Amino acid sequence: MNKVILMGNLTRDPEIRYSQGENSLAIARFSIAVNRRFSRQGDTDTDFFNCTAFGKQAEFVERYFKQGSRMLLSGRVQNDNYTNKNGEKVYSVQIIAEEIEFAERKSTADANAASATSNFGGGAPQPTAAANDDFMNIPDGIEDGLPFN
What we know:
mainly beta; two-stranded antiparallel sheet; 2 helices
């Protein structure tokens, strides 16, 4: 079984590309910083993971996440080993996202949504928070764009 679950903050805005061909596929690449529960004296207390999402998940990331956004991600670990120009073997790992969810409090999400409105040209409906709770209300009519329908 190859399964990983991570919760962390995006270190930069997601990089979105589309595959070429008749049925182009959205591909989102991003990195998240995950705090360790425990760390030894002198060790770093944060790990950084390179992640990739495809299709509807990639479009979801592009639309609702930006640098600093908190995300809950489940997926799988994939090796990206290759030999460079000098003939040296390079080892790297990336996380292939299978499920992505919001993982921040409504006050943080509201601040991010307000600043993100300019990124979407103001035309995209943004999630809003209900009074006195930590849940976000998803605007009507947005279901078609969500990856988990």
